[in-house]
Amino acid sequence: MEGGQDVHSEVSVSEESDEDKPREIIVEDSEPQIPVPQYSDEELDKLVEFVQNMTTLFDLHESDWTEDCVETIRKWFMNVSELVLLIFYDGNALSASLGFPAASVLDFTYFLRLPGEIFSVDGFHDCVQFGTMHEVDGSMLALLEIVFAPIFFAYEPWSESVKSACLEAVHGFLAHVSHLHHKLAGFTVLYIPTEGMHLEPLEAVKDPRYLKRLEAVATHWMTQIRTALADTDQTDHDSVCPSDEYDFWLYRRK
Predict the structure, then answer these.
(1) pLDDT of 168-217, one tens digit each?
(2) Which of 33, 93, 143, 183 has an alpha carbon within 20 to 30 A of 177's alpha carbon?
(3) How far apart (Å, rounded) are the C-alpha atoms in residues 191 and 176?
């Protein structure tokens, strides 16, 4: 009996000791709170006025601003999770959007903020990032050709096979975008790659991968030229001699 009592007491002590142990309480992290700007009506109106004054679009008049535009600008200031504000003409109507327009536009003014950034009236001009893009398609093409493409061309850490595949894709993409951009204006313009412009001819011919990429661009040229020559809408049938054809293409280029 005593032995049984001892066992019972040991079990009781063990259970009590387990109950007395501190238990780890896991608290799930709550979602981060999005800050809400606290503007007075005067401050919000002043910020909206700043945006209106900083918007530079072709043929923009003060009377073009609508209540919908102003309300969208107010929403952008009050919702700090919206990072982009665009002002543009949708047809003949001035529009404001918290994202990029779905349709093609001639130009737009953009305003950018950092995530969670709250603007103040005094510091708005120092903190906001803004600008205007005219001829959006052409501006994007120039940005790709002048800024981003040279970064790819000069990047060294890639292996030769990876670099060749990436640069071939870059040339193909730029050639296609350049063709589409100029085709909208009725022109046939050949894409000129800038890769290897610093190389001497004798040095360039020693790189077979580089030559292969140039050959791919030349193949794209031939396709463009065949398409242009086969397009009867671009040919003046009244041309009687080569000089007339030459003058016609000069006229189209202007």
Answers:
(1) 999 999 998 888 888 877 788 899 999 988 888 888 889 899 999 999 99
(2) 93
(3) 8
Spatial contact of 133 and 106, defined as CB atoms under 8 Å apart: no
Question: Could you give the dihedral angle defined by the CA atoms of residues 205, 147, 220 and 162, in that order, rounded to the nearest 10 degrees?
Answer: 60
Q: In what order do the strands lie in the sheet with 129-134?
A: 93-97, 84-90, 107-112, 129-134
CA dihedral 34, 51, 131, 62 (to 10 degrees): 150
The reported pTM is 0.53
Distance separating alpha carbons of residues 68 and 54, to the nearest angstrom? 18
Asked whether 196 and 170 are in contact (CB, 8 A), the reply is no
Give the pLDDT confidence of 15-26 residue by residue, as tens digits: 445 555 555 555
- Regarding beta strands 129-134 and 107-112, do their DSSP bridges make them parallel or antiparallel, or are they unpaired? antiparallel
Q: In this structure, are residues 100 and 86 in contact, taking their beta carbons and an 8 Å threshold? A: yes
Q: What distance in Å separates the CA atoms of residue 72 and residue 243, rounded to the nearest whole number? A: 56
As separate numbers, helices (DSSP H) first and strands (DSSP E) second, the chain gives: 10, 4
Joined together, the tokens standing for residue 56 give: 């530079």
d(CA 115, CA 106): 28
